# Entry
Amino acid sequence: MSPIPNKHRDMLSTDRQVVAVPRNQAILAVVLRYRTAPLLPAVLVALFGLAALIHPSFGAFDVQSLALVALPLALAAVAQTAVVIGGGIDLSVGSLMAVSNVLAARSMQGASLSETCLLAVAVVVVGTACGALNGLIIIASGVPDVVVTLTTGFIWGGVALLILNQPGGGAPEEFVALGAGQLWPWIPNALLLLLAVVFFIWLPISRTRLFLGIYAVGSDRTAAFRSGVDVVRSVAASYAIGGLFCALGGLFLVMTTGIGSPLGSAHYTLSSIAAIVLGGVSLTGGRGQVFGPVLGAYILSFIPAILIFFEIDPNYGEVIQGGLIVGIVMAAGSLKLKGRSIQ
Amino acid sequence: MTRCNTTDGGSLSFGSRLGLRIAADHSFVVLLALLIALLLAVQIIRPGTVSSGWVSNIVLFAAPLGLLAGAQTLVLLTGGIDLSVASIATAAAYVMATNVEIGVAPALALGLLISILVGLLNGIGIALFRVLPMIMTLGTNLMVMGLLTVYSQIAMAQRSGVPEFLLFLDSTKIGGLVPCSLFVWLPVGAILILGLSRSGFGRSLYAVGDNPKACTIAGIRIWKVLIADYVASGVLSGVAGLLLIGSTNAADLGLANTYLLPSVAAAVIGGTSIFGGRGGYGGTVIGAFILTILESLMTLLNASEPIKQIIYGSVILLIATGYTKLSK
# Structure
C-alpha cells in the first residue's frame, strides 16, 4: 500500500499549488472514510435533549423502554455489520432471529434457570450453524448473496413457523428479568447486556486473524485470495458470526417480550440495513466498525418515540428509516463521485 | 460484488462466451423439461387433475407473478435488482382502491402514477447517484410501505372498492376456459419479448448489463437507459398490483408481500442472470409457470404453510444453483 501515497506526498511537497487542494481533499477523505459515524453520538444526545424538552416527564422509564426496543435491533445491526464487512449482505437476518427466538421460547418454557442458560448456549450454537449454512450455500452454489439470503430467509421463516406456529412459549422469570429489569434507575439491563455483547463478544472476535481475513475478503476478494487468505472460510465465517448475533438478538427478544413470535421479527432485516447505513458501514464491504451501527440502532429506535411526543403518527418512523437509507447512500454516492473527480 | 462480476463477464474470451450461449440455450430445454416433469408429477399424484380447466386456473394465478417477474427481469438484465416491486404493486392497488370515488379511470391513473414516481426515484438514485440497486430499492421499499401505512389510517374513512372490470379481468374466464387476465398479460408479454430482442432500448439493456464501460465508450447514455428501465419496472409492478387486487377484491396492505421472492425466483429460474446481460422474458414466463405449478402441487399434497415455504425455497435454491453451474 505504501509506495503510491509516498509518491503522492513527494509531489505535494514540491508543488505548493497542489497542496492547497488536498486540504479539501483531506476533509473529503475523512468524510468518505468515517462517513456518518462521528456525528452519531451528537445526534443521539440531541434527540435526548429534544425529548426532554418537549416531554418534561421524560425520565428513567423512557430510557428503559428505549433500551428494550433498541436491544434486538442493535444485535441485528451487529449481525448485518459482520456480513457486510465481509462483502456480502444478509436478507435473512429477521428470519434467523425468529428461528432462535421461537426455539428459545419453546424450549425454555418451564425450564429451571440453569437449564435455561444451557438452552441459551444451544440456541446460539444453532443460530451460528444456520448463519454458516447461509455462507456455505452462497459459496457452494455461486448464486449471488442477495438471492441466496432472500431465499434462505424464506426457508428460515418456514422453519420458525414449524417450531412455533403462533406467538407463544416463554422463559423463566429470572431469565426475562435479566433483560427487562434495570440494575438501578437510568441504567437499564438491556443497555448493559448490549455493552457486554459488544465488548466481550464482538471486540474479541473482531481482533482475530479470522476477522482480519473477513475485512480483506470484503475489501478485495481477488487480492485477499492472492495474499493467501482462505476466501471460503472467511465468507462462511462472516455469515456464521452474523448468525451468532442474530441468535443473541432472538434470545434477547425472549427477554424483552417474554414470548416467542415466529413472524414478529421480520422487520429487523430492513431495519438492520438502515442501522448500518446510518452507522457509516460501507456497503461495498471491507470497512466499518460496530459502534456506528449500534448508535444507529438506538437512533432508529428513538425516532418513533419522538414522533409520538410530537403527536405525529409513529408509522412515519418507517418512512424516515427508508428516507435515511436513500438520503445517506445518495449523499455518499455523490461524494464518492466528487472524490474521484478531484483525484 | 455484482459490479465486479459483471466486468469479469465482459472480459471473457470469445470462445467461452460462445460456450455460455450454448449452455444458456441448452438450459432452456432443461427448463421446459422441468415444467413438463412438474405437470406429470401433478398428473401422477392426483390422476385427472391436469385438464383444460386446471390449466386455465394456473394461467390465472400465474398472471400477476408473470408481470412482477417481468418487472424484475428488466432490471436484472442491467445487473440490478428491484426489491421494491412488491410494495409498488401494493401501493398502486391500495391507492387505486381507496380512490375509486373520483372515478375509475382517474383512480387507475393515480395508482399507476405512484408506481411511475417510485420507479423514477429508484432510477435517479441508481443511475445518477450510483447507489447500489439493492440498497436503493430497499430504501424506497421501506418508504413506500411506511407512507402506505400512514395513508391507510387516513383512508380508512374513505369508501374503498375494486372497479368491476378489474374483478372481471382477474377472476373471470371467457367460455370457462380463457382467463381474462391474458388480455393484459399477452400484450405486455409480447411487448417485452419483442422489445427486448428487437428494439434499441431492449438491446441497450443487455449491453449495459453485460459491460457498462464498453457502453460508455460506445456512446450509450447509461443513466438514461437505467432511469427508463426502473420506471418501466415500476409501471409493470403497478399493473401487476392492479391485476392482483382484481383477484382478491380487497384493499390490503399485505397484498403483494409474498410476491417479492417469487418475482426474483421466476426470473432467475427462467435463466436471467442476476449479474446482468443474459436472459429474457420467455424464460421468466416459464419460471412463473413452474413456481405456480409447484405451489399448486404442494397444495395438492396438503403441505402445511411452513413446509410449503421450506420446499419452495429449497427448490428455488437448487434450480438457481444448477443455472449458475451450467453457465459458468
